[in-house]
């Protein structure tokens, strides 16, 4: 069966599923105001539509990769497709805040099974070298393209149909993908892997992060010193401490903690966690500003964000040219400064503003910055390691992005809600004041990412990466 299957057909099916996962990460953004109005969500709870997905996705991503090695990558890929597609249907049928948030979390679990299994299938289907490099190039293009299409498609479906259709659209695609994948994708597994699953690790780290986010979000209403807030903070500490203990004693840990002794990997993950904390604010609050303050419809809002995807593609290409010449650290530092500058521009958004004058310059600056951040940090996080650690390193880097975005959104959304509540003037003025504080804090977090990188990373830690880049030797990193 495996020999009769054209590997490029396999790639199309894998990329179709990954396209859904990436699409879903952005398609929701432009529908947030419509969802908030229909389901009567508070400003503080609105972020859970995003965070329920990203936290579960990030928390179970590493377990998904390991389970695929043991159970079979095709099997786990198909299970993930079923969960993701079923959860999409539940999302669209949701009639309450709790039902939608719960279904979004289930969607995140499906995505956490699909993504690592899909990447492993590519690695086992295509031989190392030019063919695999070409396949991974297609994979990366799908990730960038999916984000852009998600913005426009989300706006189109929300404006001309209704927000449930941003989820219903996954159902036929998921069914077709499942049927064809069942017939055409060959099975593979790691026969040498230690046959055990660190489910306790995945549950404790995800539960701990959710408790932490819930404590931050609930603190605005309950108070930072309330029994409820302190209780959830305590629960988060207990669960995250338990996670560390579990990892230190597990036969096959989800995260082998000794890997963080590698300075380049540790620095890149912490810097990316902070960078994504800042950039999630740009998407989330800009979406609300463009629709609720400027009065754009969902489709116009989606199109308004297209320059961001274009800017990332351009700057990632430029960064790949400059990294061999001047080094990965200066390129990443320049990207972080540009991103922070874009966020600072957003602190000047007026109540009676315009997209071209007030929003577009900041989107352009931020996107050019983030493309220059992603490319070098990905290399720093995944190069210079043993082959056996490549999967773990890639998974950790993806997890840092998801968790960083979720935690950042929780903190910045709580800050924005607090400042809006205490601001005087009209309702729109108060809303914009809250946005200003969130953008300013996002810029500060981006500068903190720069400080971490400059403080921890020395020339010797990135010497191998820069040698490979300068020699023209391809450095293939996990998507």
CATH-defined fold name of the largest domain: Growth Hormone, Chain: A
Tally of helical runs: 19
Q: Please outline the major beta sheet.
A: none
Q: Tally the structural domains.
A: 3
User: How would the global form be characterised?
Assistant: globular
- Overall CATH architecture of the largest domain: Up-down Bundle
Helix percentage: over 70%
How far apart the termini lie comes to 27 Å
The secondary structure category is mainly alpha
Secondary-structure element pattern, one letter each: HHHHHHHHHHHHHHHHHHH
Task: Give the C-alpha Rg.
Answer: 21 Å
| Mean pLDDT, all residues | 83
Q: For the record, what CATH class of the largest domain applies?
A: Mainly Alpha
Strand content: under 5%
- Low-confidence segments: 473-479
The total of beta strands comes to 0
CATH superfamily of the largest domain, by name, is: MFS general substrate transporter like domains
